[in-house]
Amino acid sequence: MRVTLLGAGVPTPTPRRFGSAYLLDVANRSLLVDCGPATTYKLTRANRRTPEVSLLLFTHHHFDHNADYPCFVLTRWDQDVEQTALRVYGPPPTVDLTRTLFEAPDGAWVCDWTARIEHAGSQRVFANRGGTLPRTPPQVDAVDIDATFVLEEEGFTVRAADTVHAQPWLESVSYRVDSAEGSVVFTGDTEPTDSVVALAHGADLLVCMCWDTDAAMEAEGLSRGMTGTPSAARIAAEASVRRLALTHIGPHLDSRSVREEALRAAAEVFDGPIVFGEELMTIDVSGSP
Q1: Is 222:214 a contact under the CB 8 Å cutoff?
Q2: Spacing of C-alpha 273 from chain mean position
Q3: Separation between Cα atoms, residue 22 and residue 30, nearest integer Å
Q4: Tens-digit pLDDT profile for residues 13-32
Q5: Other CB atoms closer than 10 Å to residue 210's CB: what's the count?
Q6: Which class for 248: exposed (0-12), middle (13-18), buried (19 or more C-beta within 10 A)?
Q7: Angle between helix 120-128 and 110-118 (nearest 10)
Q8: pLDDT tens-digit map of 40-59
């Protein structure tokens, strides 16, 4: 079981990080949690191919978590000679967003996939890759979910819990994936809440959003709906997780002096290993810290 931090940033782009996206390899499967800006490009930088991913989980639909959705879907479809469906789960409006982007006759990207299906040159490119004509439209099986969501797959189970972020305008959830190889929780964007602590209890790895220090967030009026340090460490301690990975890191926290002080403060609250997440970092969930 392995997590790759494809996107470990916030809506503000910096040279080091932008948006949220996580690749999870578990039970010989690969799935994405969120699909923020440049996820597809970052996936290739991690030496991975889009057709490897069979499942996408959205925590919520802010653009820093979903902006690369059309790029990922179309790239995966274009490169997949097997023409396999992508299964997508997330809070509303996951289904409506998917229809608006991809569904005929007036989805935003129908013009692209129609041309690639019908144009002789595009058909030849597809056939040269090993595909069998006729080519079919992108198949995206999208489902709206809530905190009661449970998905039983061969080799792993996914569960969800409510988070507190941008309600009532956007619903949001966190996810836990359990397997014989280990367990990992992705908080998504949330303030500290009992539901996330309960979901994460005893997990091997907690991938927790951490915008900034608690003090900086409070001074800027940003404490509601988000987590900072040492609050992230407090969630990890209360949940008795084995390891904590900080992600969704803002530019202020990413500066060296602030980061070092924040990690010292977090270590006073949580006595397990703490990873300061960097983009393209890979974490072995089941391995030793």
Answers
A1: no
A2: 22
A3: 10
A4: 999 999 999 999 999 999 99
A5: 30
A6: buried
A7: 80
A8: 999 999 999 999 999 999 99
